[in-house]
Amino acid sequence: MSIQFTNTLTRRKEPFVPLEPGKVKMYVCGPTVYNYIHIGNARPAIVFDTLRRYLQYRGYQVTFVQNITDVDDKLIRVANEEGTTVKEVADRYMAAYNEDLRALNVLPPDIQPRVMQTIPEIIRFIEGLIEKGYAYESEGDVYFRTGRFSEYGKLSHQPLDDLQAGARVEVNEKKENPLDFALWKAAKRGEISWESPWGQGRPGWHIECSAMALKFLGEQIDIHAGGSDLVFPHHENEIAQSECYTGKVFARYWLHNGMLNINNEKMSKSLGNFLLARELIERYGGQLIRFFMLLGHYRNPINFSDDLLEQAANGLDRIKTAYANLLHRLETARPEEPNGQAEEQARIISNLRERFITEMDDDLNTANAITVLFDVVKEANLYMRNQNVGQQEIAAYRDLLLELTGVLGLKLEQEQELLDSEVEALIAERTEARKSRNFARADEIRDLLAAKGIILEDTPQGVRWRRK
């Protein structure tokens, strides 16, 4: 069976056929970097990193683009509150975002464009829409004419009349139609802005992704993905402006992950259940958070609780324990299989791999794929009950666990942790190296500690450190 995805656009499960054989162009919406990400933001990062890994496992060459929104009302508000610049806020929280993703073993994107770096392309895109009659300027703002795109609403499957009725709640005399959305916003006093044909201003939210996808992936892409909360209006508007600009289908497959609840309630600051990803990573570890996220099908909502995390921890420990036992038995295994089970074990291992692929081919069903992982553990443990075992068979189980957990982005190898006293000694050495202007050694120590999961923060009161 070929890989199949449930396409939000068609609401059907479809065979995956890329635009170019063997290659995949994939765009995933990234965060608005005005604060640390919450645990819900971690879900699409983990899910679509796993999709990327699986496509590569199946032999595809994947170009993975994830944008960063670094210009936004929220960023402007935080910068004003802190008395700093929008760029400083964005730089800080973008670095924090990437740090959190490393702790979750999410691979860095091939390209991570930022809005501030894409302003010329955004302006050209808007100019093209105006020239084609799909957009208009109004008192320094520029709006997209949703009524000119006959297929508006096709992703969210909402009739245009219903959408217009809902949009009439908003009163904006600048718009020709209440459903029209902003491509460019005239600058307010003191706001960050850029010069444009319509005066000083900044981009609207939706145009950013269309311009970045066009710049780095071309007029058409294979997969566009993100959280289900982005289906409308963000992804709906991306389709409208991109397809009106190019005259081509923007994305072949639209994939969206379900939302995450906390103790069966929607996450909300007002409910006091708003959880930052980095706080949970520090408490439970990035590997457990990742494993937990993959225990449910990506399209379904999942519930997050301490009890469920504990259950997930027990499951992950089973896999890691089996791997450790395999390494131990390999040391005393015989060169040849002593029980006459060589062919049977080879067949079992091959069948397990094929079952894993079948489950992952079926709309990235990581939940069922993890069930296969537990079956690998079961079969490995059954084989290890023999008093004597063969090297080839033990190595094959070991390699299969590494192979399949690698596809899921899970690490089985235990990294040696530094003791607190060792960390403090290295920090002291780094401090002395900086005083003596030996910056190469100081940087070397910082990199060594980072590789061991130790994050350093230079503050006016001295160096602080914490584990990922």
Q: What features would you describe in this structure?
A:
It is built from 15 helices and 15 strands. It is an alpha/beta fold and 468 residues long. The strands form 5 sheets. It has a 4-stranded parallel sheet, with helices on both faces. A 4-stranded antiparallel sheet has the order 5-6-7-8. Strands 12-11-13 form a 3-stranded mixed sheet. The longest helix is centred in the C-terminal third of the chain and has 25 residues, at 306-330. The radius of gyration is 25 Å and the shape is globular. The two termini are 40 Å apart.
Question: In brief, what are we looking at here?
Answer:
With 468 residues, the protein is α/β, with parallel strands linked by helices. It has helices spanning 39-57, 73-82, 86-103, 119-131, 160-167, 205-217, 231-246, 277-284, 286-294, 306-330, 342-361, 366-384, 391-407, 420-435, 439-451; strands spanning 4-7, 12-15, 23-28, 61-66, 135-138, 141-144, 181-186, 201-203, 221-227, 251-257, 260-262, 265-266, 302-304, 454-459, 462-467.
- Helix vs. strand class: alpha/beta
How would you spell out the order of helices and strands? EEEHEHHHEEHEEHEHEEEHHEHHHHHHEE
Largest sheet: 4 strands, parallel
Stretches with pLDDT under 50, minimum 5 residues:
none
Strand order of the largest sheet: 4-3-9-10
pLDDT averaged over residues: 92
Strand content: 15-25%
Helix proportion range: 40-55%
Question: Topology, please?
Answer:
Blueprint lengths: L3 E4 L4 E4 L7 E6 L10 H19 L3 E6 L6 H10 L3 H18 L15 H13 L3 E4 L2 E4 L15 H8 L13 E6 L14 E3 L1 H13 L3 E7 L3 H16 L4 E7 L2 E3 L2 E2 L10 H8 L1 H9 L7 E3 L1 H25 L11 H20 L4 H19 L6 H17 L12 H16 L3 H13 L2 E6 L2 E6 L1
Parallel strand pairs: 3-4, 3-9, 9-10, 11-13
Antiparallel strand pairs: 1-2, 5-6, 6-7, 7-8, 11-12, 14-15
Helix pairs in contact: 2-3, 4-6, 6-7, 8-9, 9-10, 10-12, 10-13, 11-12, 11-13, 12-13, 14-15
